[in-house]
Records
---
Amino acid sequence: MSETPKATGSLADRITGPAASKLDAATTSFTPSASNASSSWADEVASPVGGQSKQLGGGIEEAQLDGAAQPLAGSGLHDAQYEVEVKLSDLQGDVNSPLFSVNTFEELGINQGILQGLYSMNFKKPSKIQEKALPLLLGNPPTNMIAQSQSGTGKTAAFVITILSRLDYSRPNQPQALCLAPSRELARQIEGVVRTIGQFVQGLTVQAAVPGAVERGAKVQAMVVVGTPGTVMDLIKRRQFDVSNMKVLCLDEADNMLDQQGLGDQCLRVKQMIPRVDQILLFSATFPDEVMRYAQQFSPGANEIKLKRDELTVGGIKQMYMDCPSDEGKYDILASLYGLMTIGSSIIFVKKKDTASRIAARLTEDGHKVVAVHSAFEGSERDSIVEDFRQGRAKVLITTNVLARGIDVSSVSMVINYDIPMKGRSDAEPDPETYLHRIGRTGRFGRVGVSISFVFDRKSFAALNQIAQHYNIDLVKLDQDDWDKTEEIVKNVIKSSRAGTNLQS
Ligand SMILES: Nc1ncnc2c1ncn2[C@@H]1O[C@H](COP(=O)(O)OP(=O)(O)OP(=O)(O)O)[C@@H](O)[C@H]1O
């Protein structure tokens, strides 16, 4: 690293000029992000079909359950739900919130069995993305869709409801819908949401197509298949998976799935192997311009629901940073934060698998209870570690970008960026999309959470500052020389998420 500053004085003080502008070194009070102040979101639907918009009152009596709660045995069960409920109804009645809607699920034309599933999860009202997207998604003839909405605002239910509405239930063994996700954990989670929302839908069959899930030679025989692109591609090639009757192809985390440097090739090949499909759906919280152009080719003629850059961050996530003494010195800061991490659950993101394993081993040696997971782990081991985390048996998870996207564990109240996310191998450029997805593991559906990003030298500071500028947000500096104050600030936010007193930004 080019610079290893001493612990004295903040890095913001040491760096002058415009680079320091978005990181707020002086204040310890939160500066609300621009995201929730804007009301332009609802106007962003570019639709050849046109949506519906009926006025309706509609209160919420109970809090929602996590979508993955039942089949995955409960990621949302650690919340004090009765405490969350009042504020959630406030949020859903606030026109500036991404959870706002004027319609009920009934008015969106969803069939009875699916409605029952939604109500069993305590979903009382649609979120904004659900309200805007569903009339377009459910219309006939089916139309493609590119949909963007902030992390944790219910995109999964929007595409799952669509998939369940399109199936021919007289053909239970015929694959009719394929949903692709970038990780096995996310594919499994989506499979769980399909099962939960579809639990009252007679005759529904669902199957996962992730590494190890389908035996060699066995046929994929479910109406809905949720998988990762590599495995799905292999299954189609080996003729285990008949894709001749596809009604819906959905890419969750679509910008990541279409990325030319990553999964783009595999997803394109899967699409090319499907002879025809009625509807192509692309969902994500982020769609960088260069990917959007490709997305439009992949999903031609799509309705588009887009967000502006400064609308992307969720107001409930309080974004902070810590100026660490050195790269190595980040470990001590992390260890000092352990008590705060275990008030709820926490995820620590690092760049490299080795770092994840090394930090986990060191924290364990130092008497802390943590787990690590990354792509070097074998599939079933990954599943069981993530399940322990969902269940609250493990409260601190150390991982890489493999779990940066989509994972929905509502008890997560803190995310730590141990390493600032950078693009590619060269590490030359900051990665604002990955930053947004990482911090979005907290603050799910109106909850409150804290993200703390570690910086330690000019490069990491500049990278974080560029990310802050990208989203036009102010980050709050936590002072490592005043732990009492730091603890108080963080605790105030985390405890409020559990007390339900601070759900609005
Ligand atoms: N209408 C609703 N009412 C109450 N809760 C809901 C509703 N829709 C979704 N949820 C819950 O909100 C949480 C977040 O939803 P989901 O995982 O679909 O977010 P997302 O938009 O896909 O986020 P990400 O971009 O991080 O993948 C889930 O626990 C889900 O069960």
---
Amino acid sequence: MKFVKAHGLGNDFIMIFQDISKEDMILLSDRKLGIGCDQVIQNINNNGQYNVRFWNQDGSEANLCGNGIRCLAQYYDRVINKFHTNSGIIHTVKLNNEQVAFSLPVIPVIKQMSYKLPTYDVHIGNEHIVIFINNEPDWDQITHDFQDYLSIKNIMCIWHDKQWNIRSWERGVGRTLACGSGTIAAACAVWENNKSLTLGNKDNITFHTEIGELSVIKKKQIWQIGPANIVANGNFKLI
Ligand SMILES: N[C@@H](CCC[C@H](N)C(=O)O)C(=O)O
């Protein structure tokens, strides 16, 4: 089976172009027994319509994957692409060999949650909890406090020092180096929380992940711009 390996800020993916079983998805994602990735991106070209599904490392399906869709767009030669996903049609624009932009096909729904820190529940196609913290998160504490949500929502921790910082814990995976959709959810939470008013252009927020930057821009639609890198391709033997 043909595969392509890619990553967006260390959130890594295996792209495949055919149907496979859930067991094979899990095997492919396994870092010891397979190739290893946070998500498998299944992209099937149906007479020119690109139908895309995202599968977490544990075999659960995700409705949206921001870093993943940018990687898929990077794979194609075309500047503009249109992908059909469970969250709707996503338009992508390849800006150069590193940066890709995509527009969110969903109107965000944001609700405040009761917690000791400002916390928001953000639906943008997939589900996120965004927590405003003060510095690097204590994941033992956070995963303990939000244990009832871990199988249904991604948890984003954000804080502002000289810049906006973000750390991610993904449903179906655990800790990841970045989460594209989570970063859009974080921007929505910042806008809701009005914190961006003190930070210059409030419609454009750049988040610093563990290894780079992701920007979220509010125009008519919400856009994300960030890196997408293709790192390998090959054949995987399905047994
Ligand atoms: N890495 C992704 C998000 C993947 C989906 C998530 N784990 C879920 O189940 O919703 C991204 O870049 O958005």
